[in-house]
Amino acid sequence: MKKINIHFWGVVPAYVIMMFLMIIPLFIILYVSFMTSDPYGGYKSIYSLDSYIQILYSYDWDENLVLNFHYLQIIGRTIVLSFLAATLCLIISFPVAFYISKQNSQVKQLLLYLVTIPFWVSMVVRVYAWVLILSDGGVLETGLKFFGFVNDIDSLLYSNNAMLVGMVYTYIPLMILPIYASIEKLDKRLLEAANDLYSSRIMSFKKIIFPLCKPGIIAGFVLVFVPCLGAVLEPTLLGGGKTMMMGNLIQNQFGVSRNWSFGASLTILLLSITLLFMLFQAYRSSKLSHQGIQ
Questions:
Q1: What is the pTM of this model?
Q2: Is residue 263 classed exposed, middle or buried when 0-12, 13-18 and 19+ CB atoms within 10 A define those classes?
Q3: At what angle do helices 70-101 and 160-184 cross, to 10 degrees?
Q4: Which has the minimum average pLDDT: 140-154, 158-172, 250-264?
């Protein structure tokens, strides 16, 4: 009985922190999302579904509901760019992680140190650096003109591509590290056996390396995709506020627009998308474990 009490009181601080920093704020957001927006900012404690209706519809001059695709475009852009960012991170990270795993212990430590260095710098500084690189007359444009690749180039800044580059750069270490951990756990004897059986490198990758690294790939994909869904700095600095994603749209509703109910409904929608993605990945992971891949 004493052991049970010790274990219980040991996890109480974690439960308290989760209660006050996650569960209670989540219920407050959920409550506000079902309230009526106050024309002067904030909300009124009157039950209403208007904030959720506003995601899909708007009112015309006769106060009739009309289908509005504006917010759906922002939601779609957020999901697509987040998926592309996670996919590009995966394509870049796998060879990098595999190369690191092939080095001796000292070189491994150095390379892993270099991978984690960006986390030592503020994200604002890292994202703003891309403003200087991609802007008109910036480092990239100047370099391309200097080497004669282009004579004139359209602005690379304030576009979907600029936001995509910023998200890939920001979150790629979160993809490299779990993939590297999975590769490190690989039984090298399997690769030796494949070589003895005259298996090509492509076949070895397809039949051995990739399947056994799926847990790390799934973990890395989740670690990149989920933060990208709520990205704020990339659309604000690299998108210039003109190309919006859900993160800065929610920020604007709680800040400039002061439409708290609508901002809360967008927050619940974003959390729902994230939860569905997490449940899907959990289902895939459990399916892989049943198949004996893990």
A1: 0.86
A2: buried
A3: 40
A4: 140-154
